[in-house]
Amino acid sequence: xxxxxxxxxxxxxxxxxxxxxxxxxxxxxxxxxxxxxxxxxxxxxxxxxxxxxxxxxxxxxxxxxxxxxxxxxxxxxxxxxxxxxxxxxxxxxxxxxxxxxxxxxxxxxx
Length: 110
Known about the structure:
The protein has 110 residues and is mostly helical. It is 83% helix and 0% strand. The longest helix is centred in the middle third of the chain and has 25 residues, at 31-55. The chain is flat and about 45 Å long. The N and C termini lie close together (9 Å).
């Protein structure tokens, strides 16, 4: 796997982490969670910048957003007991299909 894709996957995993820590920070009233949010955002953006340098901005950001969205939906179900309906599952599946399609069309394996 090319290093740019490793950076992109790592950034994509960090994106939902900062969303969760942001919620835990209670609008930055809880300093520890607020600091964690800022650190994770900076790490996410740094890894995204490294990925953009190798993959390009369009594909990198599209995949970051897609992978992050899928992870956030999963975390919502696990952490916040959100209900996953058939419609939600269908549309999340479309995101996953899009992510796999973009990766395959870039000349690489998944």
